[in-house]
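Quick question: what would this complex look like in 3D?
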Amino acid sequence: MSTSLAFDLLLAAALLWSAWRTLATPDIFRAAILFIVFGLLLTLAWARLAAPDIALAEAAIGAGLTGALLLDAVGALRARRDSAL
Amino acid sequence: MIPLLKRAAVILAAASFAGALVFAMLDLPAPGVHLPAAVEANMAASGVAHPVTAVLLNFRGYDTLLEVGVLLLALLGVLAVGARATPPAPAPGEPVKRMFARLAAPLMVLVAVYLLWAGAIQPGGAFQAGAVLGAAAVLLHLTGILPGWGAPGLRLRAGLAAGFLIFLVVAGALLAQGAVLAYPPAQAGRLILLIEAGLTVSLGLILAGLFLALSRDSGDEA
């Protein structure tokens, strides 16, 4: 088995695993972080598929901006819960 | 027992649907038109040297024009729902984070301009450059340097709409050519750069706006 095939299989497994963990984890902060991890792995997948344009967009918008927005939402939810207590 | 049965039924249905999708993908007929070859044959007339930029801004410029319109509409929707009368004062961030944001923001603007310029010959272009600009604004906002948007002023609104308007004006001016966004090959490169420069600024503001208009500063009652 060549190295690149092994890497691709590992990448695909990591993508599926991080997608599953993102949806299944009970802690929303961890889910947001896992979503960013998923986005960065997907960036690698696009790069492996020789689509650097999509990889750039995925890294910037998918992982970066959306991840920051999700983290901000988690922070806002925590602030609301703390003020309700 | 019932939840177990239900779960098994859902798993079975999802698995068979996934299997059907895989089968359908494998069963797709070969495309009738070989598009990469068509793009390759017309690259000389496109005004740029990178095929993806040529497709996005020239051969399929119409699609991109409408995409930018959709993004602008999305932000208008957010502003209509979430606009607050007074923006809350930004929470002071930690000094290390603020210092880092101050150092990183100019570099991110530089990277955005590079991506815009590089889009003509290699991967890059207005969308990626705009995303980096938007990320810089978000970074500044998260460290408390840039306040969230209350109601955007006239200059901000002009910046948000500029990219779409420039694109629209170019499309309108070229209508006399008989087709939407059919650039004359001699001016294609310059027109694409003009449109992309406008799009970079506007997309950066729009993406930042989706964040800054929605985000609640810490301590702010949501």
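Answer marked as accepted. Chain B has eight helices and no strands.
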